[in-house]
Automatic annotation (TrEMBL):
Function field: Catalyzes the transfer of a geranyl-geranyl moiety from geranyl-geranyl pyrophosphate to cysteines occuring in specific C-terminal amino acid sequences.
Provenance organism: Lentinula detonsa
Record protein name field: Geranylgeranyl transferase type-2 subunit alpha
Biological process (GO), any one: prenylation
InterPro entries registered for this protein in UniProt: Prenyl_trans_a
Pfam families registered for this protein in UniProt: PPTA (PF01239)
Keywords: Coiled coil, Prenyltransferase, Repeat, Transferase
Parts forming coiled coils: 3-30
First-level EC class: transferase
Length: 337
């Protein structure tokens, strides 16, 4: 947008077409060469070089990534020293990094990168600190730094977040989960609309709670404070509301449900067309009906849900049928939803 286009001459267009055809012929010839080598189970360094050339052109060619790994395992690694294997894997990490700069959301690149790190040999002999896993520590620590840089460039790249979990799980010296919790806090506070950061946070908190390393009741209240801030900052952001539902869970606590309903109701008064406010109110009032029917006024809650669903059909007409079906469930006594 806003860029002035220049009209190209017929000669220039023809030259461009010929150049593209030449590149296509070269690519098809290279593809045919690599797949022919693969078919005859060739594990030579020449075959490895051919896969390098092809993957530099098309890093989405997952068959070639698979073939490359087989070449390394069956042909190159057996005739290499541990130092040479480490150098080969480091070269492949560089190859994938160049590919990620242009294609940061291609599964096969991330997969190959993880494979490289999982195949780093133990340091030969005894290292200065007596740790035979010195190479692994060095490369995995470096990888965490790399993935953080990638997430700085694109904080919502779910491929990078998924890969970050792999790195954290694979590090020879595990990183403290409280440190990872702080990392998600920084990412969320810089941009509330980061579903992957919220998701990572839920994973870390679940682990800390299950291990008894963090008081669940106290930390949940802190999480509610964080998510309330996010809800009021951007009530249209879906990721915030999904995280809020995760905090509520199955709705066993009537006090928490009623408190959160009151907070969301207050927000709805400020944002009367917020579909996420309305959907959440319906969801939480239904939880009250299901879990605490003996201590609430069921007729009032049911009517509230029906009215909210009627409003939702107006503000979100594309999902009218969904809200209609939800309304039928609300009026069925003891219905499990």
């Amino acid at each position: 947008h806003g860029v002035r286009r220049t009209r190209q001459s017929k000669e220039a267009l023809e030259a461009k077409r010929r150049k593209e055809q030449s590149k296509l012929r070269d690519y098809l010839a290279l593809t045919d060469d690599v797949l022919t080598r693969k078919k005859r189970n060739e594990w030579s360094r020449e075959a490895l070089h051919a896969t390098t050339q092809l993957l530099q052109v098309n890093p989405e060619f997952y068959t070639v990534w698979n073939y490359r790994r087989r070449i390394l395992i069956n042909g190159v690694f057996p005739e290499s020293t541990p130092e040479q294997i480490k150098d080969l894997l480091t070269d492949d990490l560089s190859l994938t990094m160049e590919a990620l700069k242009i294609h940061p959301k291609v599964y096969w690149i991330w997969t190959h990168r993880g494979w490289c790190l999982n195949n780093v040999p133990s340091r030969p002999g005894i290292s200065d600190d007596g740790d035979p896993r010195g190479w692994e520590k060095e490369l995995w620590n470096q990888e965490l730094f790399v993935v953080e840089k990638l997430l700085d460039a694109d904080p919502r790249n779910f491929h990078a977040w998924s890969y970050r979990r792999l790195v954290l799980e694979s590090m020879p010296v595990p990183k403290l989960e409280t440190s990872e919790l702080a990392y998600t806090t920084r990412k969320i506070e810089s941009n509330f609309s980061n579903f992957s950061a919220w998701h990572q946070r839920s994973k870390v908190l679940s682990s800390l709670w299950s291990q008894g390393k963090l008081d669940e009741t106290k930390s949940k209240e802190e999480e509610f404070d964080l998510v309330h801030n996010a809800m009021y900052t951007d009530p249209k952001d879906q990721s915030v509301w999904i995280y809020h539902r995760w905090l509520i869970g199955s709705g066993d606590s009537r006090d928490i449900l009623e408190r959160e309903i009151a907070i969301i109701q207050s927000l709805l008064e400020e944002e009367p067309e917020s579909k996420w406010c309305m959907e959440s109110l319906v969801h939480y009032k239904r939880l009250l009906l299901r879990n605490h029917a003996s201590s609430v006024v069921t007729s009032t809650l049911t009517q509230d849900c029906i009215q909210l669903l009627d409003q939702l059909r107006k503000v979100d007409p594309g999902r009218r049928a969904r809200y209609y079906e939800m309304g039928k469930v609300v009026v069925i006594p003891n219905c499990v939803f």
